[in-house]
């Protein structure tokens, strides 16, 4: 027998208690504690207050252990799924032009987009260091939601872990994404052929330089901001005009040089780029000069390298230039047959040199 | 970019190349020019200068990469210091990958040594102040270019009475190295492109012996491509005129007497070692700096027990011959096969200023083409 069933005043108290117990709670702590990762009430409050309320969507609000979607709706949008994951460990968390939250959303969107997929759903897993200010996490989650909303995608499931102070650096985010590829699109680094043309959607190295400066170790002042932006809409614009794109990749860590080397190796062709055609801001060049770095290897978070048949180059270029994320697009090089697997740079003096894969990190020279 | 683009103008480069080409027939023989400094080697490859020069001009890449000339034994010493649990070891980034006989600083860091990469030695003083219970050791290396900043850091540490800070001093001197090269009968050079950064500190006067005793021309050069082309043209002009002088192409930064403040600081803090062991060149008398006894409290060689062993280079490694300019990197038996930037056997393949790394990174393809053209294909890409 229910112990409250015979007593109406006790029953009323029970209902009030239940109301309070089931109410969505705010997080009152100022910093992440181990309790926020314990699986108990504190963790539930954190998830509710920071993530569920921010990412607000019907799939996440179910709070199941998994997100479920209607297959018919997915199949109406394309004939293949694209699936990708990436982890974000940037330091500092906030830097000119962007932050780790926006990066975690746009980065995974872009990994989907470069396959020609329309990004639909993301997951969000966070690893939090004990002591992280709750306000920092809130800012990051707000930023993730703003980026998701801008890109018209939903963050539908996630995970939260808290580790002891010192076991992680403030905040790590993993996002996994699912998108749908429209029929007739087959983009791959293996499809590149001699006589193809290489196009880039704007200046290189802004993100890498912004991060270097934001670390505050260099005592340099510039107004360079990260180029963090979603590229799926630009990709859609390109595919609307030309579904026969051969290869496409976002030039993130390792920069343009790494992407071109991956292309050349995958398709066993040579790629020759023209130094004078590669757009790089004066300030980025300046920072690279001072530190002995090569801007071709600097990270970007909103740059797309497109390889397309020569016959389609002009229309793809104008389509890219008509989009805000591609207004500074330009042709930077061409694909040739030999030497296979090698990227060549035509220098400003007309000489040719290799642009190789980077070994380890770029490390500044001593003099 | 102000003060940079002006020195990378393709039209001006074309004009200079035309001037250089005009002088070659007058000389009637192939000309061998050594660029002493690794910074020049790097620029030459980065901009493809070697490729656009007339075939009659051969550039020989000299020993001016401070990382390349660091002997293996000294690197073992560095790693031994860094592995001391009470030490925070600070260094410039490009020393991280240089192999000692067993490991590198990068590997030592992964194995738990507290190693920090800095942009200035002065930053190591801040680390020392922030970590009073640790000994902070800075790996001081480089030619006269970086020696003044080491000296200023020691003077600053003395002024602030920072007791938990020391330097492991490996500064080397360019003039004795040049003398050793000039005394080498294997090397028949026609002239030198002199180091710009070193000369900003020491000036142009110390090079006079090259023209007076050895009757070779030298032009102190900047690092931009037009600087290097102009310096080559100035050298050829001297050869055509049958002159051998010390000329200063880099006069926008280099003065005849050098930087007096920097020289005074170096003289105050350092004295010349009796000898220093150079990788590839062996022991060269009076070719390195050590910290004066007045500043012994900042000298890691006094504070730590250092193995100080001589370790022979790998048998297959021909870095020595390459640093002396006797062999081209691609002529080394292990270039690009056993010795690559990922698996370096010698230091010339590690530093971005090393001749092997420059050839591998920028020039191995054009070298293969040249070899094919001459029917002597040896190098695999």
Number of continuous helical runs of chain A: 11
**Chain pair sharing the greatest interface:** A-B, 29 and 48 residues
How many individual β-strands of chain A? 13
Summarize the biggest pleated sheet of chain B.
5 strands, parallel
Could you describe the 3D structure shown?
The complex is a heterodimer of chains A (367) and B (381). Chain A has 367 residues and is of the alpha+beta class. Helix content of chain A is 35%, strand content 22%. Chain A has a seven-stranded mixed β-sheet. A four-stranded mixed β-sheet of chain A has the order 1-6-4-5. In chain A, strand 4 (117-129), helix 6 and strand 5 form a beta-alpha-beta unit. In chain A, helix 8 (232-241) packs across helix 11. Chain A is globular and about 90 Å long. The model of chain A has no long low-confidence stretch (mean pLDDT 92). Chain B is of the alpha/beta class. Helices cover 38% and strands 17% of the residues of chain B. Chain B has helices at residues 10-27, 38-46, 49-52, 72-82, 105-110, 122-130, 147-159, 174-182, 196-202, 208-212, 225-240, 260-269, 300-303, 319-323, 355-373; strands at 31-37, 57-64, 87-91, 114-117, 135-142, 165-171, 191-194, 218-220, 246-248, 270-272, 275-278, 282-285, 289-291. In chain B, the strands form four sheets. Chain B has a five-stranded parallel β-sheet. A four-stranded parallel β-sheet of chain B has the order 4-3-5-6, with helices on both faces. Chain B starts with 9 loop residues before the first helix and ends in an 8-residue tail after the last helix.
